[in-house]
Amino acid sequence: MDALSSAQNKLLPEMSELLKKRYQILQSINQEQPIGRRTLSEFSGMTERDIRKETDLLRDQRLIEMKTAGMVITSQGEEVLDSLKSFMHKLTGIADLAERLKERLGISDVIVVPLDSDKAVSVKNQIGKEAARLLESYFTDQPKVAVTGGSTMAAIAKELKSEKPYPALKFIAARGGLGEDVLHQANTIASAFAEKTGGAFKTLYLPDHLSEEAYTMMMKEPLIREMMDLYEQTDLVVHGIGNAKEMAVRRQSTTEEVAQINEGGAVGEAFGYYFDADGNVVYRIRSAGIQLEQVQKAPAIIAVAGGQSKAMAILSYFKNAPQRTVLVTDEGAAREILELTENLGGN
Predict the structure, then answer these.
(1) CA dist., res. 284 & res. 268, Å (int)
(2) CB of 127 closer than 8 Å to CB of 152
(3) Domain span at 294
(4) What is the pLDDT of residues 224-239, one digit of tens each?
(5) Of 90, 115, 138, which one is at a domain's C-terminal end?
(6) How do residues 125-152 score in pLDDT, each as one tens digit?
């Protein structure tokens, strides 16, 4: 936080809190428009009474409009959001937080969005928006992009936009299917990325979790070998990071597998690998998807995950993540990661 913002925060702390609140509301409306007050209340984590009071003021200032379908942001509102973005990051300490986390994790860069996606759904959408803008900046240089699944990855797909098509792009599903949540599977997300950008996509129509016999057999199939070759050629990997226990449930892991994961002290998961708090791989599933060694060879990597509850999972993965990785996360996760590393005596 710069000297002016710091002085203002000390002299009028209530003004800073009010500004943060109204900025968040305006940002949420911009993300989810058209949106009703009740839905906005759920997205922002604020009471309906607060939402009504603040949105009435925003309407009077002509920053939003009330329509039959819900509230929408005006062009003036968009200008205010763009103008305040840098200032808000300084005011809230987000810019400093991102720099500290970047140094602590020892990676290329960190992008932090305000608030905590565990407490407000709109924050996950904002993570998706920031990750989408970052991903778009790679399009001309990294045409082969491997993508994993998950709700945060789906948020990126929603926010992708392209003023011109990129036919040279190829999005490759980095995983097979995960349970019954089709919308969050890597195949679906790769397809959505391609549709938004005018690129092509390659899917992996296999269960994400294979028996030893099925894995051995499938790895001999020409189509699977083709996918494995594509993973070797990947220019950019975009992936989420999961909580170990949650991912074990999503994968419908057996009792024996869950026991191994728990006994190993796993806290985080990525690419089918389960990591303990020290970053050691304590369990891995048999999968025809992208392998950790292939990820580590990729010229560019974007990791996307947020929420205070994901802090330990993120930290465990980054114990061994390539230095060139860029992390897109939220304030809740960032602050918790820094607190965890301080309590553990640094890295």
Answers:
(1) 12
(2) yes
(3) 93-343
(4) 899 999 999 999 999 9
(5) 90
(6) 899 999 999 999 999 888 999 999 999 9
